Each structure stands twice: as structure tokens, then as C-alpha cells.
Amino acid sequence: MSRRLRKRLSAGVEAFEAFNQVQVHLLELAHAHVERLVLEQFLEGVADVKDPGLKTVLGRLCDLYGLSCLESANGWFQEHGWLEGTKAKAIRKEVTRLCAELRPDAVALVNAFGVPDTCLAAPIGLGHLSP
Description:
- By secondary structure, this protein is mainly alpha-helical.
- Helix content is 78%, strand content 0%.
- The protein has helices spanning 2-10, 15-21, 23-48, 52-72, 74-79, 85-102, 106-112, 117-120, 123-126.
């Protein structure tokens, strides 16, 4: 990221314009940073859980979060040579496996957020969206 900015600045581009030219990259960097912070806090929270059953479920959920972040950005990782296609497929397969493992706990996990029944009874909560 800093190379992109430096390249533009050394080519005589005004700082404001250079920043605007790399703004999309800065936003992606900020998004990735926040995802990392969330994952780190999630891992710390799971480590503090004493109940073994809950720890297992939250550990799976944490894994799902981290892998789904990678999955959503796998095009960028592949484009920049950080991830091979076979590993991207393996990530997708693991996400699917974790979703299946977490399915029996889905209601309890949703209930843990305390989402009001009125929201859950909305069409989006029932799984049917009107066009």
C-alpha cells in the first residue's frame, strides 16, 4: 500500500490526489484489519470459555468466521499469488463442513444474540423474501 502511495507521490501527483487514487485499496486494507481484530478478539473470547461444549461450538463458529473472511477475499489472494486454487476450494469445502456441524446449534446461537421475535418473524427471518 505504501509503495502505491510513494510511487504516485514521487511521480509528482499531489498528496490528496494520490490518496484518492489508492482509496479503494485503503478501504480494503481497513476492512482486512478490522476482520483481523475481530478474529483475534473472538479467539481470546473462546479461550476464556470454561464450558467444554460451549467452547467447542464457539471454536467452530470462530473457525467459520475466519475461513469465511478468507473465502470472501479469495479472488484477491489468488490474484496476488497468496492462495492457490486448490486451497481456495479447500477453504470453501471447510466452510460448508463447519456450517453443517453448526446447524444443530444454529437456533441457540441466534437466540444468544437476543434478536426480538418481531425481527425473526419478518419475511427475511422466515426465509421468504418478496421480490
